[in-house]
Amino acid sequence: VQLQASGGGSVQAGGSLRLSCAASGLTFSTWRMGWYRQAPGQEREFVASIRASSSRTDYADSVKDRFTISRDNTKNTVSLQMNSLKPEDTALYYCVGLYDRAPKYWGQGTLVTVSS
Known about the structure:
Blueprint: E1 2-6, E2 9-12, E3 17-24, E4 32-38, E5 44-50, E6 57-59, E7 67-72, E8 77-82, E9 91-99, E10 102-106, E11 110-115
Parallel strand pairs: 2-11
Antiparallel strand pairs: 1-3, 3-8, 4-5, 4-9, 5-6, 7-8, 9-10, 9-11
């Protein structure tokens, strides 16, 4: 299984970024997908997830109403639109494949840096 994340970068507070993840090696349309992040010196934490059918999404309270997760089962991709970014959103963001709501597969991470 490969999860290739892209779209990270540097942005000023209040700006936006869109992360994308291309998945291969799994039956993508049957997997819950998500994003986790790890800030410097912190534990990895859940950001958002989306069910296989795209009918339900879940978000960490810290990103609710600012981030939107979506997927395209025809292209085997999952995306994270991040708006109103804050310096505390600075982290390495990982695309994950979830099983029983827990990460089973991890991508390599893409760095998001938000300056004040």
